[in-house]
Amino acid sequence: MTSDPAPFPPFSAPYAPDDRAIAAHLLKAAGVSAEQDTRIDRTARRLIDAIRASDDRLGGVEDMLREFALSTKEGLALMVLAEALLRVPDARTADQFIEDKLGEGDFVHHETKSSAFLVNASAWALGMSARVIQPGETPQGTIGRLAKRLGAPAVRAATRQAMRLMGSHFVLGETIEAALARAHSTGGPRYSFDMLGEGARTAHDATRYFNSYASAIAAIGGAADHRALPDRPGISVKLSALHPRFEATSHGRVMAELVPLLIELARQAKAYDLNFTVDAEEADRLELSLDVIAAALGDASLKGWDGFGLAIQTYQKRASEVIDHVDNRARALKRRLMVRLVKGAYWDTEIKRAQERGLDGYPVFTRKAMTDLNYIACAQKLLALRPRIFPQFATHNALTVATVLELAGGEDGFEFQRLHGMGDALYAQLAEDRPRLAYRTYAPVGSHRDLLAYLVRRLLENGANSSFVALAADDAVPVATLLRRPADIIGTADGAEHPNIPLPRDLFLPQRKDSRGIEFGERTALGALVSAVAKETVPAADSAASATPERVNTTVAAARQGFLAWSATPAEARAIALEKAAELLEGRKAHFIAFLQREGGKTLDDALSEVREAADFCRYYAAQGRKLFDAGEAMPGPTGESNVLRLRGRGVFAAISPWNFPLAIFLGQVTAALMAGNSVVAKPAEQTPLIAAEAVRLLHEAGIPMAALHLLQGDGAIGAALTAHADIAGVVFTGSTEVARSINRTLAAKDGPIVPLIAETGGINAMIADATALPEQVADDVVTSAFRSAGQRCSALRLLFVQDDVADRMIEMIAGAARELKVGDPSDPATHIGPVIDSEAKERLEAHIARMKKQARVHLAGIAPDGNYVAPHIFELADASELTEEVFGPILHVVRYPADRLDRVLRSIEATGYGLTLGIHSRIDDSVEAIIDAVWIGNIYVNRNMIGAVVGVQPFGGHGLSGTGPKAGGPHYLSRFATEQTVTINTAAAGGNAALMSGEE
Ligand SMILES: Cc1cc2nc3c(=O)[nH]c(=O)nc-3n(C[C@H](O)[C@H](O)[C@H](O)COP(=O)(O)OP(=O)(O)OC[C@H]3O[C@@H](n4cnc5c(N)ncnc54)[C@H](O)[C@@H]3O)c2cc1C
Q: Are 628 and 647 in contact (CB under 8 A)?
């Protein structure tokens, strides 16, 4: 591979800048002349009229949306049905699924307003199915009656057929050959083909996608005629399909492995002079994508070819800077590039991710009109860069099209693009009015099974209330509304942000600020964090001396002294100290991350999450404490008397915490006990004494008196001496069930007051995945749940139950994805799995692995580097009962189950005796509800991973062998640390009931 030697700076721009500043700039530049405005109106109106007149066109998606809008139950049910039905292999699950979804809507009474063939077919199939499956009937009963009347296969076949019709509406062909044949038959001028599929999870997936792109290029090139670029067909590629770890933290690996693949495909495309476009994906992959693209583009073998292109999303605040970057690149290489301008397909995902990550702002706009405004500004910029840049405007919005046409001032040097199955009427009208204007159709190609995720994106896009196609399809929306200019909708810069979408860190206001996170997809933020962490020095672990038994006595005595003053400190002052602690923690995150990495073996992602969780605990308990521990609650009662119930601290609390969350759980316990007015003696795990010492130092600095908070280092013997002490008024413990039991016995054996024990212990946590679940999503969530933090979370997944009809494919994908995880030095941001806590833990896990290798089927046996590392392992058990204990490491056990024996799965889960976390992957709401009702488990996660409970969002803790409750980070936690006191005052004692007597008549 020969590369362009000229050094070129990587793309860099603020990730989530302030919307108002951008709006001020865009609004200033947005004006057009009155004549231009009139022409834009005229063109847009004509296009809208064409869309609205297209009622009897064959199979328009607009028609379907008119029938089943997403805002209706039917529309939603249809979407969920479409997303999953075609991948369900077994009849039983398919029938159950169909019944579940059709039960949610009222398809029977759905009047068919449109004559479109597609709508009729869907309505017919769904209407017929709904008529025979009555909502509320059990699947067994329903299927039984159905079979008698019509036969379940008939209903299933009809519904599947309807889904297929929908699929074929959006997909040009199941194979590239079929798609090419259809493209030729329509006589459409330009196409860009897209090979459907989810992003690669495994190396095998990535190779499959590469091969499919390569053979598609050959087929497209072979079928192309002799016209020149840009009037040539093309292909669109997704970088995430070509690499199983297409993520910012795996930068080095991605550059080494993916760039050559991209160059290879581009070379093939060049050989046929095709348009080769790299699709735009999520915002956190933008910088990585641009690095990959820049590296490929600079390859000498691609010189002299004008077909390379990329998509740029204008909902991203960085769009304008991306255009500058791309243009600079084109200039430097003396090359022409093609740029597809889109608004962006993942808006909902972007908003959620930014909220989860606790970012200071969103990388995308929160108002659609801002995206539209930015689109026009970017269009103007691209048009000015012609001919070096060939702009491709991808939109189905008539106003956007009309505005771009006006700004272009002619019909040359650019093209429009649409998605196959969308915008038919609009583009037909354009073709009629302006025959010289070029447009290209983006044409997905793939089997019905592969189209599901794509289909959902399109349904979402078309059904969203703000979407142009949905509004244009709704005759009730006046044309004038569709013609409102984005600048008018925004008004002033103050109107740039959506009033109902709070900034990520304001999500929990007014209660509290969310903890601040970092987006690793932002190179500067990641780089700054990594170098700050590297600069921290962490002392040797043996610098923390263990306490002696005598020290236990003196410490408890000191804490008893401290209790009096601390419990008399107003709740407000206690809360302020905790909030200060949260600020200090966030300000020193690099320091704590360094300690967590070096003492606790945490990866960067885990360490950052832990610092955030610790800060969340501080703020959450401060907020809860203010509410619970202020003046008390007035109770109702007879006149002449005041009755107040208040909470007070109990005395000295012993807080005994584990090594797996040496900062978050440690601080969670301590801050809860302190907020409740107790003094605390904290005994951290002997494996992580330094982090605890740092945390205590920080709390003291934040304003917690030395006398109220004490640290006792040491092993289990010190913990035992502490809990046995007569002056301990309560114990909060997180760790193994055995130790919790022994503390319980110690407390029971003591004379004197009976003290509470709040215990959070382990679990043999399960996940159930049925045939309606999306394998890629299951793979992501299983890998995260089982292997993240080297499986050393009490919430981690240990036992996966997979429906046998889909088990082979799912297990293969999970194992393939786990194989891609990097095990090694946790200070390297690319590492996914760090070491286990110590050599003892490693030995225990290795012994289990050796046993499993003999008695179970091995699906994955990873290889770990030297040191305390354990690679991921996956074993298949014949029966869940073979796993008898919690195995605290990256080892997953899988059990298959037949669809009709879910009851047995639930019994197996119950038989473990634990009840901490459970994952469910299913699209059948009835099944999900039935499972939830049947199990006694503390934290249940549906269609997502099952770790990483967020303070105040997923209060954490389990039942049975998993703990006593109440849940940490939940609203009932603090009161368990307190005693209750009622104060009754006879206000009439001195001289009668003056208040009553002076009341007005
Ligand atoms: C040929 C083609 C190729 C495409 N390739 C890509 C690609 O590579 N990557 C990609 O991401 N998308 C791609 N898309 C999808 C594209 O992003 C959507 O089709 C497009 O956003 C819809 O825009 P519109 O102008 O047709 O509709 P409109 O209805 O005018 O715009 C809808 C868009 O507005 C934005 N939006 C909606 N609500 C908000 C809000 N509250 N705040 C801010 N913005 C909001 C979203 O981007 C939404 O998709 C492609 C589309 C086409 C036609």
A: yes
